């Protein structure tokens, strides 16, 4: 008998409420290692809440969020630290620190979680900046950069630790269509190069679908559709179809 491959991340019947507001009502979702999953859904449908479960920023009321078969809540503090070290979270609003320069923002995860020397850190940060074509902005503060540049800084910061997993919360909000494409292209290139697992939450569809092995639609607290780009575009699922039509 062949052993079943274990998903990298698995939501098993996950419920989450805030007071009377039921946000997740039985979410089931499996994410395989090295793949790209895009989660779409209306604003307020719980996409960010779903992502936050993976990092432990939000804890499920019922059900399980499993990381390589283990509940995040049941990891030892050492295992939890290890897992967090291997992942990056690109927040919805970039979450750059205004009082830190571009260089310092990108270097931050390295100074926090590794014992690299100043010189090693400098090299790593400059390598990521070069790959993202943002050389020469070391001393600039976020307020001095354009929206597109700030996204690149946030992306460089997400990539600087060579994570196994990157969570992208609306990575293209606030950008014009050309810059959106740009960010999608960068994510795709880096995912191919580095092979990390990506979970991307977005309402920018359908251009981002090209990136994904799996597209999941969150609606009324549940994943109501899971499939490939071709499957969702075939428009055979009523809710998924209506969602996409509404966005075109
Ligand atoms: P989305 O990312 O899909 O736009 P969110 O996941 O941010 O939606 O939020 C889903 C719902 O949960 C919203 O109604 C939001 O107000 C609510 N919510 C999210 N986080 C909290 C929180 N910490 N406390 C109370 N309500 C919250
Ligand atoms: Mg959100």
From TrEMBL:
Pfam families with a match to the protein in the record: ABC_tran (PF00005)
Coiled coil (residue ranges): none
Domain ABC transporter: 9-245
Annotated keywords: ATP-binding, Nucleotide-binding, Transport
Keyword Oxidoreductase among UniProt keywords: no
GO MF, any single term: ATP hydrolysis activity
Official protein name in the record: Mkl ribonucleotide transport ATP-binding protein Mkl
Gene that encodes the chain: mkl
